[in-house]
Design brief:
Elements lengths: L1 H13 L3 H5 L2 E7 L18 H8 L2 E7 L5 H10 L33 H7 L3 E7 L23 E5 L17 H26 L7 H29 L2 E3 L2 E4 L4 H18 L5 E6 L20 H23 L6 E7 L8 E2 L2 E2 L17 H4 E7 L8 E3 L3 E2 L3 H4 L1 H5 L18 H5 L9 E6 L2 E9 L4 E10 L22 E11 L18 H16 L11 H4 L10 E2 L2 E2 L10
Parallel strand pairs: 1-7, 1-8, 2-12, 2-13, 3-4, 3-7
Antiparallel strand pairs: 2-11, 4-5, 5-6, 8-11, 9-10, 14-15, 15-16, 16-17, 18-19
Length: about 575
């Protein structure tokens, strides 16, 4: 009865045919590392993002849309499943916080249910084009247990990994750079030791057996191969393109990748325009190394990063144009977001290479500060969602999973998974204006497996409290970034634990510039206590799961390496260029 009532409400609102309401096309577009302050409709006055702004004018814009994690792999795992990433083991307690290799054995577990899998069961044509970064295989090169096609996507074209500096020749190394540096150091030390040992043996200064020298030389060879394979072949191992299960380009040409993503996106829409489709366009923009076409180089007021943002906006405009050209605008539920905030530590001698997070403090990698987790959130569905609406309620990327169910799965007979904790809530009542407040009273913000902050939406008063238990230590120059070129740590000496916790009222201080105290805020103790109770209840829902980011799962395994040709001589090139 509830489903029928909801259907009637939708029909009354939209005036569309029942089939169109039951199974709208779903187009999800996610940028990579885009700061909320980089977009015109979120306050940027100097970067040109007319297509994102147009999407906001024609739909609903969320001002308090939050990533469930401040890094690529865990954020996307939460987005796909509607659950915090630590529930599937896609987070780390310490050390590695994202997948490092295509040939690692970690990834989104087989028993996790994605929105793509459920919609595929409901008859949708499902596709993922662009970045995956959720793993590839488990035990053999061809088992593809973590692959998109194993998680409900009927078609995949793109990078099973993610863009990194290593993908562009001449850039400084990024993947496992610290480990690779240690391997190089150990190799050099071992080489010196082996040479010294051999010279002493030949000179009669030592009477050790030759088998000891041979064993040391073998160990040196092993270290050399480990160092050389990681240092010399990261681009070949990680920077590849796949179509479904087949590697089509290895290593990939990053200068042509964006055009091919666009070409594949437009082709998917055209192939599936007569049925219902779910298409997740996971853009490679605006992640380093910021490879940008000549048409956009030097055109923005913010250097290479600004050029790259404006190119991304053009790509999004081309996708929206394809939807319109095929007459699908009114029957397509479109969503645009970023996986987390801009990367403040991304700098070189030319200046800032990462995003701008507007008025919000912090950035990528920071689980608590708003700049790391507050992201654009724009929804468009003409005739169903009101145009130009702006919502200030707390929402999350994990809400997209259950958001499609009231209109697609539940009305079509499907159900949300009943055997696991779901963290997301449906957004449709809020987006349509049928609900005044978000269903999220509390939201919990993690850095790896460490809870750094929590927020409480006190709906009766309208106040929005934010409690910080742990914060990263910023660079003393006051840039809001952490030390070095990497990302902020979640624990150890690089963080500060607060007792009592820091308290902010985001409803009056969204920049988190003025921490409250018992003297300045009469409700200080009551708020800290209430949020503490919510955290305690939340912790009761946690249960141990296999760690996908363990050292054994993260490390490069030759027998898992995706390869076109004969391993280790993997090489192939895809013909044809995209439209850029």
């Amino acid at each position: 009865m509830r489903a029928l009532l909801f259907l009637c409400l939708l029909l009354e609102t939209s005036g569309t045919k029942p089939a169109e309401v039951l199974k709208p096309n779903i187009l999800l577009i996610m940028a990579d590392d885009l700061g909320i302050g980089d977009v015109g409709c979120y306050g940027n006055k100097t970067l040109r993002t007319p297509n994102i702004d147009r999407l906001a004018e024609e739909g609903v814009r969320l001002t308090q849309h939050l990533a469930a994690a401040p890094l690529c792999t865990p954020s996307r795992a939460a987005f796909l499943t509607g659950r915090h990433s630590f529930r599937s083991g896609m987070e780390a307690s310490d050390g590695y916080r994202a997948l490092q290799w295509n040939a690692g054995s970690g990834g989104l577990p087989e028993n996790e249910t994605t929105f793509a899998r459920i919609l595929q069961q409901q008859g949708y044509a499902t596709g993922l084009i662009g970045k995956w970064h959720q793993g590839v295989s488990c035990a053999s090169r061809d088992d593809h247990c973590h692959h998109p096609l194993h998680h409900g996507f009927g078609y995949f074209y793109g990078m099973p990994f993610t863009l990194v500096n290593d993908c562009e020749p001449g850039r400084p190394p990024e993947v496992d750079a610290a480990t690779r540096a240690k391997l190089q150091q150990y190799t050099q030390m071992l080489a010196l030791g082996v040479l010294t040992l051999a010279a002493a043996k030949l000179g009669g200064l030592l009477s050790v057996p030759w088998r000891v020298v041979v064993a040391a030389a073998s160990l040196l060879l092993l270290f050399f191969l480990a160092w050389y394979s990681s240092l010399g072949f990261v681009r070949r191992w990680n920077c590849i393109l796949m179509r479904n299960h087949a590697v089509t380009e290895q290593p990939m040409d990053v200068t042509r990748a964006a055009g091919r993503v666009l070409q594949e996106t437009v082709s998917f829409i055209e192939r599936n325009k007569r049925g219902s489709f779910l298409l997740f366009v996971s853009l490679l923009h605006v992640h380093l190394p910021l490879v940008t076409s000549r048409a956009f180089l030097g055109k923005s007021r913010h250097g290479l990063y600004g050029d790259h943002v404006e190119e991304m906006d053009w790509l999004l405009g081309q996708i929206l144009d394809a939807v319109e050209e095929h007459g699908l605008t009114n029957t397509t539920f479109t969503y645009f977001t970023s996986d987390h905030g801009g990367h403040l530590e991304a700098r070189d001698e030319r200046g800032q290479l990462g995003g701008w997070n507007g008025i919000y403090r912090g950035g990528k990698g920071m689980g608590g500060w708003e700049g790391g987790i507050r992201v654009p959130g724009i929804f468009r569905w003409p005739g169903v969602l009101p145009a130009g609406r702006v919502m200030h309620e707390p929402t999350s990327l994990i809400d997209v999973f259950p958001n499609v169910f009231p209109t697609v799965v539940q009305l079509g007979g499907g159900q949300l998974p009943q055997d696991r904790v779901m963290d997301g809530h449906s957004l449709l009542p809020l987006l349509r204006g049928a609900a005044e407040h978000s269903d999220h009273e509390f939201l919990f913000h993690y850095c790896g497996r460490h809870l750094h902050a929590a927020r409480w939406h006190q709906k009766d008063s309208g106040r929005l409290w934010k409690v910080h238990y742990t914060t990263p230590k910023f660079h003393p120059e006051g840039t809001g970034a952490c030390f070095g070129q990497g990302i902020c740590p979640c624990s150890g000496e690089g963080v500060t634990h607060h007792s009592p916790p820091l308290l902010f009222d985001l409803s009056t201080d969204p920049s988190e510039a003025r921490p409250l105290s018992p003297g300045s805020e009469p409700q200080f103790q009551a708020v800290i206590a209430r949020v503490g109770e919510a955290v305690a209840e939340h912790r009761k829902t946690l249960s141990p799961v296999p760690a996908q980011f363990s050292t054994a799962n993260i490390m490069w395994k030759p027998w898992l390496q995706p390869c076109c040709g004969t391993f280790p001589f993997c090489a192939c090139r895809e013909d044809g260029d995209g439209p850029l």
